[in-house]
Amino acid sequence: MRRALEDPRIEARRRDPIPDEVDPAIEALVHDIIGKVADRWTMLLLEALEEHGTMRFTQLGRAVGRISQKMLTQTLRQMEEDGLVRRTVHPVIPPHVDYALTPLGQSLSAAFCGVWIWVEAHHAEILRAREAFAARASAAGAKSVLGA
After folding, report:
1. Running DSSP on this structure, what letter comes out for residue 83?
2. What is the CATH number of the domain that holds 71?
3. What's the pLDDT score for residue 136?
4. What is the structure's pLDDT at 146?
5. Domain assignment present for 73
6. Which of 24, 79, 99, 142: disulfide with 84, CB 3.0–4.6 Å?
7. pLDDT tens digit string along 23-36?
């Protein structure tokens, strides 16, 4: 993933104290957006469009890999509804449709770039934790089989 530019408005808000009260409308929207964008396909489409720019439907499908046309269509429609992608239909035969991130989509991509950087910084710790968990689960499974 390409490192996105920081959004100065977001960086300024990070330094603000946590408010005592949260606007219920903002909280509801946060939960809605997280539910929509934290899925596998939205994240991968954000990444593909951020890295490659404007892409056609079939190019996006290939870039993401193992996504059905139905899921690709649903995810792109959802992203368009939320203002994250711009869908452009070119009046030619056969129809030519392409997708690009909007400025809003680019800013979301920048926010998720932090997750990528976090994983890069902590990948060894995550792998160690997973190995330790698997070893404990395996040992616990062996004990239950032996009747301990």
Report:
1. T
2. 1.10.10.10
3. 92
4. 63
5. yes
6. 79
7. 898 888 888 888 88
